[in-house]
Request: fold
Amino acid sequence: MSDYIHPITLDAALYVASHLRADDYREVKEGHGHEPLLYIPHSAFYGDSVYFDVPNGKTAGLAGVQENGKIWMLCTDAIHDAPLTFAREAKRFIDSRKEELLWNIVDKRNAAHLKLLKFLGFKFLRELKHGPNQLTFIEFCRVRTSINDLDGNRDGRTSSSTSS
Reply:
């Protein structure tokens, strides 16, 4: 898939759980009520999960998609070491997905993830209260609009079309 995207490993899951960005830690702990070091290594293996690294070799985050199209991502501060590379690799991961609908909720306070989701083409649907602390989260989704999205062609033409 990429030099920076790899199949999930327990070591990567433990590393990310131990080195979460402050906003990601708050989202897991305060927003969902989970202890990161217990929850992340276990839950990271549900569905199709990967880890990302950046050119300096640091592990930047985990991401995955569960059976019903529920997508998730948790990151370390390494995303700031190579933000453009990280964003492009995240887009590569999203564009590789075959699901018609990808969705989840994000903590409204997590500005970096909101910015990344917008860059990745997700739409923000509504705000809702979630978790043990009833924090404000934003529901988001990305809908595959046509079969052409599968090969990255967004304008409806095929790459082998000829003009008359």
User: Anything to note?
Assistant: The radius of gyration is 16 Å.
